[in-house]
Specification:
- The chain is an alpha/beta fold.
- A five-stranded mixed beta sheet has the order 1-4-5-3-2.
């Protein structure tokens, strides 16, 4: 099973809000067949009610749905958005937005890879600047 598909990567995006970024992350997951449209509402609810759980630091946000939104997930997958300007996220700026749709623990490998990639702020900054879907795909695969 492929958790990240190239079709779920968008680079050089200009985003006006974390809500817009979350919707784009969700729409990329729809395009890849990972989720049903209702999951985006669950992702937006998570932002509103538990927003603290959607920003992980070093310029990276991970919008995902509420527990009860899992019924709208067809298969586990992630989407990745890269933004040169970044978008305000809980008082921080997110340059990489990783939309997550996880049925169970299948996404944990991806999250641990993500954590390794952004652990060092300098490494994270290199990822912020990547504007090639192919390079991002290679990095996360």
């Amino acid at each position: 099973m492929e958790i990240l598909k190239k079709s779920a990567i968008a680079v050089s995006q200009e985003l006006s809000s974390k809500e817009e970024a979350t919707k784009l992350a969700g729409n990329l997951l729809i395009k890849s067949g990972n989720i049903q449209e209702e999951y985006i509402d669950s992702m937006l609810e998570k932002l509103e009610k538990e927003g603290f759980a959607t920003y992980i630091g070093n310029g990276v946000a991970i919008p995902h749905g509420m527990e009860e939104g899992k019924k709208y997930i067809n298969e586990t997958g992630i989407s990745i958005i890269q933004s040169h300007e970044g978008v305000e996220w809980n008082g921080e700026v997110a340059y990489i937005i990783v939309g997550i749709a996880a049925k169970d623990d299948e996404h944990m490998d991806v999250l641990s890879k993500l954590a390794d990639l952004i652990e060092d702020p300098e490494d994270a900054k290199k990822i912020w600047k990547l504007d090639s879907a192919d390079k991002i795909y290679e990095l996360f695969s």
